[in-house]
């Protein structure tokens, strides 16, 4: 199939460039023609309204979503456990270092106190002398010291202890860097798989998924939300593991040093937990609203960018600016609220840690003065207390980041869990050479159950014939060809291709037999040659050149400086509308389809270009069954059969001459275009009746 796309998803393509799954790659729906406007999708609160006006709620299932998010790490379990081991080693070294540093402080203090003491006495004698003189507290302090009277600071031991501390901190940070490096590689693999899953999901979603949702919101889910998931995994995971282990390790060491001071320090835990829970619960809602509003704003930006020409033509710049400002303000409020609330966690945690620190400093000082603990232990404990509050703050901060990451993950999971197109089981196959005999047998279809669009439709398209479909907007013309492509499934009836029910064929096989040229010519980024080849990736250069010449692409390409190597820019603005359409016709030509669909293929070009396009399409239609949707009736005079549709039904059928002679619906359409229009006889009567 050679289809035009407005969305970036691509499926695997077989012969003819057919999409192997139902994708957004060929959004053949044209709302003006298929009646979607009459059966308009009504957004729910969960969808955020048509333009995201309904504020998003908090993540509906935090713990299941968090479990599923971290479940993405399962394929990298070995690497994750290695990271945990590195974190444990780093934490152990960081936890032991203050104790060793406290020992160094004891060596210094023992040297300072021991130096002026007489060298001919023992420490026990010094202690007894102090008690005898009534200095019991000082005596208790000296008794706790490892000092030698008359001996100063043991610099050899001090150097060893300081070197040990420095080595511990260096090794701890080296392991910390290693675990960060490995974790980043793991997370990047996970996120890459997640991106692959979202891209593959795009190709498995039914067309109505894209009909009923803003493109900006979909893009936000597969880009911004995935990025936020990556950030959450990279930072929250490593920090949470490290911080939790650090808290546990420090808690153990604090009890080893002084269980009394440890109890004072642990008072901060329930206070911190309450603060983190309250603030985290509130920030979760706000982060969900922030990311929902980001998707809405992206949709508005995409709409403004895609339709910037139309906006200027109608002078709606101010209107678009006001709509943008409205959504931008909503995002600003949501983002400010999320950042304000989440930003409260650090000062609150810091204040709690200071309360604990003050209590430890006072009680610890009293215990040192009373000789109940050494100065080194007191110094180590104060260091532990400060290091204890830091990971608590990090846990709270990472909890906020995790809230944001899980909120985004839930949006991604909602996208990944969206209902896909029905499973297909190919029970029949088409021959290699298909005649193109198409038959509609009592076909009925509706976008919503309560509003039927096509009812009991039957007709036959003979092999090699051109079937033109005309009718007013909303008659169901484009819907009809979408059903041939199996972009939608029938409510009842069946469609056959060469006698085979198309539901018995795989979508890939069916679409490999069909070529399509849409009203809006869509070219992919790349050269003209690559865009033609896109219709059949196995086509030879001779086949591509033959298609280009048959469709008159070669005529204008030869005049370009780079010829077929001319790169089409993102918007395709370096070629004219007619030239783009010729390229899409060549793309369909090279796919060599048995069945051809031309949907308003000449409606957006001038008369001179239209004649050239008609010649190109005539070459393309040769020996192929063709469905042509047209508003310009001049383009379908030579059609073998013309179907006139109104309200999903065929009201007339015949060739051009027969339908003009019958002076029915087709005659009125024709005269409105070529004879200046005719008056409806019923209108005056209706007015009179109304009066």
Automatic annotation (TrEMBL):
CDD domains: ABC_6TM_Tm288_like, ABCC_Glucan_exporter_like. Residues 81-404 form the ABC transmembrane type-1 domain. One of its GO terms (cellular component) is plasma membrane. Residues 438-672 form the ABC transporter domain. The chain crosses the membrane at residues 77-97, 158-183, 236-255, 261-280, 351-370. Its main location: membrane. This is Fatty acid ABC transporter ATP-binding/permease protein.
């Amino acid at each position: 199939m050679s289809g035009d796309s407005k969305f970036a998803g691509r499926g695997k393509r077989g012969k003819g460039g057919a999409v192997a799954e139902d994708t957004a790659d060929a959004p053949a729906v044209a709302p003006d023609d298929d009646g979607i406007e009459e059966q308009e999708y009504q957004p729910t609160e969960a969808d955020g309204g048509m333009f995201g006006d309904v504020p998003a709620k908090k993540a509906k299932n935090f713990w299941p979503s968090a479990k599923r998010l971290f479940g993405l790490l399962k394929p990298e379990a070995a690497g994750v456990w290695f990271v945990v081991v590195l974190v444990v080693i780093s934490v152990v070294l960081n936890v032991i270092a203050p104790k060793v540093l406290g020992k160094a402080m004891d060596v210094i203090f023992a040297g300072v106190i021991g130096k002026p003491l007489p060298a001919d006495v023992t420490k026990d004698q010094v202690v007894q002398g102090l008690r005898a003189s009534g200095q019991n507290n000082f005596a208790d302090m000296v008794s706790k010291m490892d000092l030698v009277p008359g001996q100063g600071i043991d610099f050899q031991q001090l150097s060893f202890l300081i070197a040990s501390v420095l080595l511990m901190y260096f090794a701890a940070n080296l392991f910390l860097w290693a675990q960060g490096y490995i974790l980043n590689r793991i997370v990047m693999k996970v996120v890459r798989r997640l991106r692959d899953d979202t891209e593959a999901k795009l190709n498995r979603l039914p067309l109505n998924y894209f009909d009923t949702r803003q493109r900006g919101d979909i893009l936000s889910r597969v880009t911004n939300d995935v990025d936020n998931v990556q950030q959450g995994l990279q930072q929250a995971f490593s920090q949470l593991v490290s911080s939790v282990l650090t808290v546990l390790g420090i808690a153990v060491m604090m009890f080893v040093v002084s269980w009394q001071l440890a109890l004072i320090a642990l008072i901060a835990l329930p206070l911190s937990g309450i603060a983190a829970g309250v603030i985290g619960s509130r920030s979760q809602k706000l982060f969900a609203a922030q990311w929902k509003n980001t998707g809405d704003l992206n949709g508005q930006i995409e709409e403004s960018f895609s339709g910037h020409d139309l906006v200027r033509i109608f002078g709606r710049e101010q209107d678009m600016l006001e709509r943008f400002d409205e959504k931008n303000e909503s995002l600003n409020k949501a983002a400010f609220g999320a950042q304000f609330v989440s930003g409260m966690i650090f000062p609150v945690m810091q204040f709690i840690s200071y309360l604990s620190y003050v209590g430890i400093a006072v009680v610890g000082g009293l215990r040192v003065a009373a000789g109940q603990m050494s100065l080194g232990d007191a110094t180590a404990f104060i260091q532990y207390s400060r290091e204890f509050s830091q990971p608590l703050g990090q846990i709270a901060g990472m909890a906020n980041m995790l809230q944001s990451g899980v909120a985004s993950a839930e949006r991604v999971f909602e996208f990944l869990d969206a209902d896909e197109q029905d499973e297909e089981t190919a029970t029949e196959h088409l021959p290699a050479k298909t005649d193109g005999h198409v038959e509609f047998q009592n076909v009925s279809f509706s976008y919503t159950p309560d509003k039927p669009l096509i009812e009991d439709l039957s007709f036959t398209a003979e092999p090699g014939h051109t079937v033109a479909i005309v009718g007013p907007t909303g008659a169901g013309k484009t819907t009809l060809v979408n059903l041939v492509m199996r972009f939608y499934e029938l409510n009842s009836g069946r469609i056959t291709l060469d006698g085979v029910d198309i539901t018995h064929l795989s979508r890939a096989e069916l679409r490999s037999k069909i070529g399509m040229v849409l009203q809006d010519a869509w070219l992919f980024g790349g050269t003209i040659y690559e865009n033609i080849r896109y219709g059949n990736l196995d086509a030879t250069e001779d086949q591509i050149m033959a298609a280009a010449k048959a469709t008159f692409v070669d005529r204008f390409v030869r005049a370009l400086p780079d010829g077929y190597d001319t790169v089409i820019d993102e918007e395709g603005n370096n070629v004219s509308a007619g030239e783009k359409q010729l390229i899409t016709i060549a793309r369909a030509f090279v796919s060599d389809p048995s069945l051809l669909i031309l949907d308003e293929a000449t409606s957006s070009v001038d008369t001179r270009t239209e004649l050239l396009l008609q010649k190109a399409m005539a070459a393309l239609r040769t020996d192929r069954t063709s469905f042509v949707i047209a508003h310009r009736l001049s383009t379908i005079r030579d059609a073998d059969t013309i179907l006139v549709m109104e309200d999903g039904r065929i009201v007339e059928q015949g060739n051009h001459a027969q339908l003009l002679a019958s002076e029915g619906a087709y005659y009125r359409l024709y005269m409105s275009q070529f004879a200046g229009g005719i008056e409806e006889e019923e209108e005056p009567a209706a007015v009179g009746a109304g009066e």
